[in-house]
Design a protein that fits this description.
InterPro entries: TR_Rrf2-type_CS (IPR030489), Tscrpt_reg_Rrf2 (IPR000944), WH-like_DNA-bd_sf (IPR036388), WH_DNA-bd_sf (IPR036390). This is Rrf2 family transcriptional regulator. Keywords: DNA-binding. This protein has about 140 residues and is mostly helical. About 50% of the residues lie in helices and about 5% in strands. The chain has six helices and two strands. The chain has helices spanning about 5-20, 30-35, 40-50, 75-85, 110-125, 130-140; strands at about 55-60, 65. It has a two-stranded antiparallel ribbon with strand order 1-2. The longest helix is centred in the first third of the chain and has 16 residues, at about 5-20. It is elongated, with a radius of gyration of 18 Å. The two termini are about 30 Å apart.
Amino acid sequence: MKISTKGRYALRLMLDLALHSAGTAVPLRDVAQRQEISDKYLEQIVTQLSRAGLVRSVRGAGGGYLLTREPEEYTVGEILRVLEGNLAPVSCASGEDTCQCGRADRCVTVEVWRDIQAAVSSVVDHLTLADLVRRYHEKCPGSTQ
């Protein structure tokens, strides 16, 4: 399974907001500069995050973006799924009736894909934005970036 650039950047954007908001809106251009990501690309990503209710915009002077909840209340999986959709490695592992394979009823390898799906979900659904903030402070003590 491979996470797209949008998914990776969305996680970096959310982490940046968690690190720098302190109750005030964070301008997207500041995030773009700190994260070395095009502000136009971040606009596309933040639009999806906003539609999903994960961030909200503040207009005018001092405007920017804020998290809608505390960092402890976001999981990495929730953030990634907004941009990536289902994180299943193959459609048969998603738990939905999306498997078009004529062998589905006798397929043994689908069990492998479901185990991979369960392992990925176990990691991303138990890791919070607050956990990433803690890891950031451990890796970059005293950093303002």
